[in-house]
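--- STAGE predict ---
source: upstream dedup step, 1 unique chain passed
mode: sequence only
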Amino acid sequence: MTPLTIAEASRRIAGRSLSPVELTEACLARIDRLDPAISAFIAVTPERALSDARAAEARIMAGSPRSPLDGIPIGHKDLFHTAGIATTAHSRVLRDHVPVADAHVVTRLARAGTAMLGKLAMYEFALNGSSHETPWPPARNPWALDRSTSGSSSGTACAVAAGLVLGGTGTDTGGSIRGPAAFCGTSGIKPTYGLCSRAGSIPLAYTLDHVGPMAWTAEDSAMLLQGMAGHDPDDPASAQVPLPDYRAELDRGVRGLRIGVVRHFFEADNPVGAETHAGIEAGLALLRSEGAVLQETTLPPLRAFSAVNRVIMNCEAAAIHEHWLRTRPRDYSTRLRNRLILAATLRSSDYLQAQRRRRELCHQVAAAMAGLDLLVTGMATGEAPPVRDTSEWDGLLGLNFAAPWNLTGLPAMSVCTGFGPNGMPLSLQVGGRAFGEATVLRAAHTLERNTPWRDRRPALAA
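--- STAGE serialize ---
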């Protein structure tokens, strides 16, 4: 079966021309055939998936579907607790960790009727890069197996791109949804801080962690976000806000939207390659032709956002891992252990100064966005690099296009803008106002429906 989008599968299931059981069986067959090459899964749960699918099919046949997601096969990043199913964070430290309850978003998506295919690979504890010292191999980019996936939600992006799942969950502390989406050519949105509960997810950095959906299209991401978002009293940072119908607003387009272009991020602060630049310019031209009003916007230097994000993330990660690092240091991969040891040398004054600077940056972004609906800038400098070219310290080097949106807590997503000379996906990034996910998704949907990039899948998935 050719990989389907969530939206198309949902339409067929509702019209009873597609069986949730047959769809789930097709996904399981693809996993059997393709996952040995890309290692997107840590664990496949066929019995659970088929049980979920049979229950969904019974509801559909009885005329009582739970939601548009009823019968849709998905996977969960192995950072989310799943009752009775190991949740490892892709680390030997938690190899035998079997939760007794589901994470909040896992529960919400199960109640929406999804079929859980299994647990997806990731960077170890969402901080380490690709490592072969963990009990499971790192996920590989289905567009080219020797190219980086980025991280940390690597398995989800790979599984979506290869059509093993129709969508899945991710977390984003410094680009961990948007980076893999950019390198694997998928859709991925980091919602506003607090929109999706973090309860039951293994933390990396409490004040930067976001939970969000990953899928093939903006429409699919909107459908998953609808199922994931909502207030949760078990997450102290959870927001209690009205939820729009994210999918219903997609076809409103961008006419009249005021979009700021943060050009200095991708031209001066962290210059992107020629092909990436051309893709961004083509995307901007398309938005303008669809009626958006574009203006150049200046934010503080990208270096400031990157440095502050890096200090806060590493300080909070060091605090979270202090006990295990003292008692079980050898259970970490060398790469992650070295990074955590380095993070532990940061001082409390470093952390406090970073939080002070963060507040200043938030105020400056808010001032720059006054009168604007969206911001557009780069997401990656170019195609996914070869894995061999990524440094052990890659998370501590360079500038990070994703960092401004983690620090401010504002929503942002990666959108595919074409393919580079090596056939790898290129991207841009759309950011919005607090709880403005519907507007961000509208812009992404406009870019997707007016370009051919969503019609192209990795050769591996053909």
